[in-house]
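Narrative of activities, Objective 1.

The group set out to show that a structural description can be obtained from nothing but a protein's sequence at a throughput compatible with the screening campaign. Below is one input-output pair from the validation batch, recorded exactly as produced.
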Amino acid sequence: QVRLVESGGGLVQAGDSLILSCAASGRSFSSDSMAWSRQAPGKEREFVARINWNNSRLYADSVKGRFTISRDNAKDTVYLQMNNLKPEDTAVYYCAGKPNTMGTYDYWGQGTQVTVSS
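Output recorded for this entry:
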């Protein structure tokens, strides 16, 4: 069974930092793109960051310069370093792996809550 398990969320103050982790099991994602998305209350899920198999990266404009996505293939883990957090970053953060032809991903985690207080 393939699983993606996020961890590292929590309640922080504006300006603080957090590191989210996404641990994969059941298959290797070293040849696949991995991504982070988020969903705030009352809003649609939105793209945050993606890291490709060759470590090239893509970020949403709203997080560029503050967030960094990375991966450790030996640990089958993807990370999201979040600096200078803002209240508008409050959301459930989801890890996803293996893009498909429908423009989404085959595998998703259950999400981890990040709450940023002002």
